[in-house]
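User: Predict the full complex structure for these chains.
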Amino acid sequence: MEYAVETFQLTKTFESKEKGQKRVVRAVDQVDIKVKKGEFFGLLGPNGAGKTTLIKILCTIILPDQGTAKINGYDILKQPYEARNSFGWFHGETGGRSLYWRLNAEDNLRFYAYLQNVPKDIAEKRIKALLEFFDLSEDRKKLVKEYSTGMKVRVMLARALLHNPPILFMDEPTIGLDTISAVDTRKLLQALNTQLGKTIIFTSHNMFEVEQLCDRVAIMRKGKIIADSSPSQLREMLRDIRAVEVEVKESSDLQKIAEKLANTPAVKKILDTTNNAHTHIIRLQVENEYEAIPEIAEKIKSLGIKVSAIRQSEPSFEDIFVKLARGEEQP
Amino acid sequence: MKVDQLIDLFREEFPRSSSELKHTWAVFWANFKIFLSYRTWVITETLSTVASIAMYFFMGLQVDANRFISAGYGDVTWLAFAIVGVSTANYLWMCISRISHSLQHEVSEGTLEPIVSSMIKLRSYIIGQSIRGFIVSSYFMVGTMLIGILVLKAPLIVTVETLLSFIVILVMMIVSYAGIGIMAAGIILVYKKGDPMTFLLASITEFLGGVLFPLNYLQSYPILYGLAWVMPYTYALDAARRVLLTGATLASPLVLYNFAVLVLFTLVFMPIGLRTFKWGMDRIRREGTVATY
Amino acid sequence: MDHGKIVELMSAETPRKKLPTYQVVISFIIRDFLIWWTYKFWLTLDISGNILFVATYYLFSLITSPQQIHEAGYVTGGYFTFALIGIAFQQYVFFAVQSINQSVREEQVNGTMETVLSSATDFKVFLLGETCFFFIICSAFLFISFFVGYLLGATFTLSLESLLSVIVLSALLIASHMAIGVLSAGVIMKTKQGNPLTWVFSWLTQLVSGVFYPLKLLPWYLEWIGKLFPLTYSLDGIRLCLQGGQSLASPAVMNNVINLLIFTVAATPIAVYVFKLGYDAARRDGSLGQY
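Assistant: Here is the predicted structure of the three-chain assembly.
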């Protein structure tokens, strides 16, 4: 089977000096991933998990310490140009840097079209279409330095697509976008994947986004891939960590209150409690937030507890990691 | 524009043949456009060039003709002598600092990462940036020369032969320094600080190269005098002065000798420069500091 | 640390007295110095560049005749002494118009400007702090230039009166150029650009203030323009003292002092006003931290 992206024990450590002391950070730790051609592959993880470093290694920008990878069958160390010919790269975290601010959007795209060997007539057609799609047609003659961050991000997205590569590395593509552009971008990526068969490697720290888009999801933590699963498994996992937060007005006996609330049928168990000078929060794991919230509210009323808020709680990566760790313990 | 329309556009296949010439052109074209966007800079820089020539004119009024023994350049005024020196020194400085300057900018703006991950070879990038450097600094040099000749009546000998010889020498001067410039760029990539190398080089060149005074005045300091003749610039300036002040051409042995020395310097420095640059590039790719935004 | 402890720490009331201005200024100077000190390599280069520059003019002086300089009343030392004084003191101009601009730009680019100005610091104090540091550095460079010049054989007429007069003239030179620096910093805060005016000012000063040649060599219109620049008066005064053995007691030197005083008194309030305009304008467009 020919893979679009295949890594072999890819490892990268960075040395940083903090107050004269050397610190070694394993940004990417013996990563083995295989992405099939045409797959929409999600890479999920909190900030600092090593997603961006991994992507930059695959894009031949950073050299690995150990291991190697193949992009479209080409070794990134031995055949970098062939590998580069096969992908487009987008990095959302730069917040619109990495463009020439003193050129307009068109000229920025033209420059990269040249560098990526796109013939002139095709480049012009695509630049026009991409700028129109990303709603930049009117501002295409303005220097990029006058753009908002969202606009710059859209130019960068256009740049990654310009040469129509078979593989797209989309590192946090929706990070600086407004809701509407983010929806459009997701639609476009989905269409590129389903209609043109492009392989997409998509990183995000938004679990729901990944769950919605990807065929397969890997979760990264501290440089390691700690889970490689289908979105349905992720959905399962997310379902398991669904939680409701109750913010209580009085701090006395928070634990007791929590225990009482945990008696509600919809509540599976107490996740944790936070109790300090100004916030008193109980987090409860539930089967389904929308059924659980009214039940919990009912219970609160009957117990006469004063609360300031009951709300759905965003699952955190910690919850997932805890969950995964537990899964490993009980095979 | 709908997603489907865009998708249809991407169905079009085309041959993507890599052309280093096109890449070089793209780098030149984009950077020249960026240069033109700094309109106020161009204007103030032009004005300051004019002011500095005027300054040299007034400085020249204090030169004692009896003490100014032009070192074998015939009977010339100090102003003509200095104009050749100043314009070539500035030319060199602008060209050489170009590569390191632009690289530093691209690292801090994050624009180097997309370049590294694209199809361009680094040598095309360097050549493209250098051509932009050539053209911009040529503008200032030609301006300096023209004011010197037309307004201040500096007696430079300009014929087709001397002009051609002068251009050849200039190109050779830049080429002989390109290795050093590229080397400095490689070091800057790693250490990310200013361009100390080229800055120091520029001050030393101006001092030891004999831009404002004939080098025979340096003879009483043998170490400095020896150092002066270790720099390619000294040879280039000597050749340029022989051509523009005495009307010699590349055919004359002294000019040809200087030219040959410049070729030798090129052969030595170029490989060192390219190797250092490759070292710098690989090192930042290992360190993950291709962009430092 | 538990956040409860921080809350506790913060809730302890302390009377916040206004710090005296000099302490704020000193804290600025210390901060700038610490930042500057991290660029040791640059520092070495700056000093070497400075030495090379002086040496270049020493060698150039070998081919000059001292005639015009002596005619202008600077009788001690030849062209080298003359140029050395010009080079050493013109640094103040460079520092005034460029370093202040640069530090304001840097603060804006790094986003530290907003932090500094949102602390309880008066903007005049802020300005004073920013400028003071550069004049200290600049004076250090002045001494280096003079030391190198002395080694290369520059000669001066030194007496207590002439030295004291030079100190007065230097103080006025600094005061007048501080005003110019503040003014251009105000413009830069609004325009967010390396202010082209400051460039024009730098090279025009060099052309018409007689750094490298006596003013008599200039055609009348340039000489007249030269009279608008404070450096012209400072250099003439300082040279009359160090090369002519004169002091404040002589009318020629006094004349320069008076002109510098007039310039400073007229320019300072204008500069502070322009700076305030720029500062308020930047706060109005919310672009203080922008670049």
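Residues 21 and 147 of chain C are 34 Å apart (CA to CA).
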